[in-house]
Amino acid sequence: xxIDSKIPDVGTSxxxxxxxxxxxxxxxxxxxxxxxxxxxGTLIQLVDRYMREGHNQYAPMPGTPVLRxxxxxxxxxxxxxxxDPETEITVTSGATESIFSIISAFITAGDEVIMFDPSYxxxxxxxxxNGGIPVHINMTAAFGIDWDQVKAKITSATxxxxxxxxxxxxxxxxxxxxxxxxxxxAEAHDLLVLSDEVYERLIFDGAxxxxxxxxxxxxxxxxxxxxxxxxxxxxxxxxxxxxxxxxLTAEIRRAHQFVVFSVNTPIQLAIADYLGTPEHYTSxxxxxxxxxxxxxxxxxxxxxxxxxSSGSYFQLLSYRAISTEPxxxxxxxxxxxxxxxxxxxxxxxxxxxxxxxxxxxFAKKEETLAKAGRIxxxx
Length: 379
Description:
Helix content: 40-55%
Number of strands: 13
Order of helices and strands: HEHHEHEHEHEHEHEHEHHHHEEHEEEH
Shape: globular
Low-confidence stretches: none
Number of helices: 15
Distance between the termini: 50 Å
CATH class of the largest domain: Alpha Beta
Strand order of the largest sheet: 2-8-7-6-5-3-4
CATH architecture of the largest domain: 3-Layer(aba) Sandwich
Largest sheet: 7 strands, mixed
CATH superfamily of the largest domain: Type I PLP-dependent aspartate aminotransferase-like (Major domain)
Radius of gyration: 20 Å
């Protein structure tokens, strides 16, 4: 049988590899980005209620109307952006499905898509599976974007730019000046913008999340992608949504309906209820900043050097003062010998740039972070 892989260089994701290694070696898993604490019992009760009431069949393809209406209210309250729940909001099976459906709908053979490394590992394969050409640009040393470099990379084939703020894996965030420059570039070259904003509630130190939805000219050509899994500590539910102008949303839905058709009905209804209490999501930044600060306090005195995290639930640590070994080897050794799993960030670069940095997830219980801190201080 002849098999011609479209993405022959893509293997098992680093998240799966490191999580399995953590399990095999009984290591603390700070590699994959998921919380190790329970979600709010109120949300579980709501899901149970809607299941018992019989809401267990297919939801409407774009999402349940009540959830889309509530999302529209949250978007207006959060970003002063008016989104029509009927024509501009689509509920998806997680943010990754949003991203894939968007790229599938708009990227065709030969289209170039600019992305910034280190970049989330679904971007590049999604582009290539649809015949597009990923154009990778390395971020600056401080994990910012050099917009002059972006301008130099734009060609007549450039169709889309993908941004991610707060950024995974670095925890950096884009500022107002970044979004203003992006607006100028996108308008000048008639580009689409895919904005991965799954950690939008996890912003620290008094900063404000700079969504593309805050900028009317940019919002007209953008897809803003969000994740309930990240917001409500329920990554296994795979529940997200995308906000985009109606003319773009119509095309997203053409792809979405043939990827999953629709997503979990009782969870949609439960989240719609839950979102009615703003305190359930407006305090998340403070919640995770406390965890970030706790983790940083726990590693104080170690030889690992933290790199500032302004958002997300990830903290980068440089191990340059400890070893010169490649980051993949360091992550493996840390897991096997010291029983602590992390993610090497070279895997997020097209050119495998190795800066001797590991990514740690601090969306964990206090005792988990304390144990991890003791291990890191011992190295």
